[in-house]
Amino acid sequence: MLSNLRKFVVSHKKTPILHVNNMCCSKMRASLQRLKSHVPLGRNYSSLPGLIGNDIKSLHSVINPPIAKIRNIGIMAHIDAGKTTTTERILYYSGYTRSLGDVDDGDTVTDFMAQERERGITIQSAAVTFDWKGYRVNLIDTPGHVDFTLEVERCLRVLDGAVAVFDASAGVEAQTLTVWRQADKHKIPRICFLNKMDKTGASFKYAVESIREKLKAKPLLLQLPLGEGKAFKGVVDVVNKEKLLWNPNSDDGKDFVRNPLLEMSDPELLKETTEARNALIEQVADLDDEFADLVLGEFSENFDLLPAEKLQTAIRRVTLAQTAVPVLCGSALKNKGVQPLLDAVTVYLPSPEERNYEFLPWYKGDLCALAFKVLHDKQRGPLVFMRIYSGMIKPQLAIYNINGNCTERISRLLLPFADQHIEIPSLTAGNIALTVGLKHTATGDTIASSKSSALAAARRAETEGGKKHRRNNEAERLLLAGVEIPEPVFFCTIEPPSVAKQSDLDYALKCLQREDPSLKVKLDADSGQTVLCGMGELHIEIIHDRIKREYGLETYLGPLQVAYRETILNAVCATDTLDRTLGDKRHLVTVELEVKPVETASVMPVIEYAGSVSEDLPTASQEAIENGIHSACLQGPLLGSPVQDVAVAVHSLIIHPGTSTTMISACVSRCIQKCCSWNFLYYVEWKW
Fold first, then answer.
1. pLDDT at res. 330
2. Is 544 helix (H, G, I), strand (E, B) or coil?
3. Per the CATH hierarchy, to which homologous superfamily does domain 67-239+324-354 belong?
4. Which residues are bridge partners to 560 per DSSP?
5. Which one is predicted more confidently, 58 or 116?
């Protein structure tokens, strides 16, 4: 088809007027129309995916490689550490783009939103797919700003490995700690890349020490820098004892040489590298018993004889076990050190089959996928990103949404390339797909091939897993862990330009909420105004701008307010008695309770009962006590904000016969308020 198109273009240049009949014109138009869906327009791509020069790969080898050759990775870091710049270099060196984009110029592949290009930051995660030395890499560039932490969370949920990027002059920063904890939560193996080694003040030693001290990780130094700051010119490969130097006259960093370190030319550098390699071998041997046996048995007298392949295999085992993290360095902006980073991704990070998912045997090869992100496209409608864990997805396939208990049909299947997508015929397990046509699927939904397949998997889960997998119903057993949505931090009112535009605003907010679950919209019961709740000032600003640009609505925001939370610092014990006579019935309750702080974060109060109270406590009375506690914690004494991170211990409870549950709740609530008012050491915090 491409050769036909080239012939047509050449003949068009030679002949000013082409005399073709209507049938030929229609055939050409049809051929060009079919090509449109396969050719990414509007970007300077090096070639079509699957094309290298004039050679065309097999479609199956490009789209569905062996699962052992797939790497699903994410780039995570603090804001302005160089994630997007690193991603841009990765795409360039892998042959995906012809030119190097720059964040400051607003022409990078993954930062394609207008708001991202104007501000020079990543706002929403972007997925790209590329080949590197026979491996298929699905990469997601994630935001570094704290307001968009949810984007990192839901991407890490479906990834198999991650590259943590650090500013070599700053080391571990605030958001680095957050994304590192998120990766720990999902048990994701990581590689550390110390970026900006050319920056003034860059310190390899300081950055490594901050990883060790602040992240409590064990760094494995696979590289050493050749110079720091403006003197940075390359890296030393500690594993292979080689020096990597980039051509200073090269504009794109593609030209670099690997030279073995020799005693004649680099005696001091060879000595330093040998010491670093010996220390690396000892460090890995302490963490891996198999490697320790090998070292002590065959190479105990001379570590120099240990083959690099054996050391790499041991480092890979340690990385997958998450007992240590390989550390590399470079400068993405100056085009140094990115190619070795790509090699490390393929060598040390896991393939999908090396990740342990306990639910996979339940499906026996049937479809099992997780929807982790939804985008709205004006032409295509909702676009749903899916991670396929087992089975295969094809266009026109009917799928079953376990969360929504509904069946939908996939109209088209796409492979994501940032804001450009390529239509494909199928996609197998281990990949990340983009589907069109799913109108009811939301972030965190579990997808199966059919309801009968889901029920069969549920029965296998109960049979094979035993009691630890048994839950209330069959559907709950199959739900993959979704994404924890954090509570909003900031809120403000939002008004349409006129009452007639209220429905348009509601539709825009509904679409944006489906894309971004951390955005909450509620209606104020007193004023009737629409309240916009988000994770920060920038988050709400971006939403406001998107409503204007994408939906054509000039909305008005009210003053921004912070969603404060209150907590107690000291334990306080109080007693309260409520004695009321309503009609001819007397209501008498006496309660003694203690309010105290808890170490672990808890939005809801932790309720404890003394043994004498819980023995003969009726269910209705217990519910009344808990209702009173919860209602009292809705408003604290300082700003009227919710109270959290507290425990309430009920020491004694005396209830007169005939007392209503409403009076019990009122007495308990009043007693808690008394405790809070006595404790003046309250503090107010932001709920991040």
1. 93
2. helix
3. P-loop containing nucleotide triphosphate hydrolases (3.40.50.300)
4. none
5. 116
The secondary structure of residue 93, as a DSSP letter, is H
C-alpha to C-alpha distances, 637 to 474, 667, 681, 684, 685, nearest whole angstrom: 45, 17, 11, 11, 14
On the question of pLDDT at 242 being above 80, the answer is yes
Work out whether strand 190-195 and strand 161-167 pair parallel, antiparallel, or are unpaired. parallel
Return the ∠ at Cα 84 (arms to 140 and 372), rounded to 5°: 20
- 111, pLDDT greater than 50: yes
**127 vs 8, residue with greater confidence:** 127
Give the CA distances from residue 594 to residues 576, 677, 681, 683, in Å, rounded to whole numbers and listed in that order.
12, 13, 16, 19
Helices assigned H by DSSP within 568-683: 611-614, 619-632, 661-678
What are the residue boundaries of the structural domains of the chain, listed by start? 67-239+324-354, 360-464+474-478, 490-561, 565-685
CATH class of 565-685: alpha beta
User: Would you state the structure tokens that stand for residue 345, as one six-digit string?
Assistant: 């991704």
Q: Which residue has the tokens 């302490």?
A: 286
pTM: 0.78
* CATH assignment, 490-561: 3.30.70.870
Element (H, E) at 399: strand 398-401
What is the rounded CA–CA span in Å between residue 119 and residue 635? 38
Report the amino acid identity of residue 23. M
Structural tokens at position 279 = 């220390």
Q: Is the pLDDT of residue 554 over 70?
A: yes
Domain covering 360-464+474-478, topology? Elongation Factor Tu (Ef-tu); domain 3 (2.40.30)
In Å, how far from its chain's centre is CA 76?
A: 8
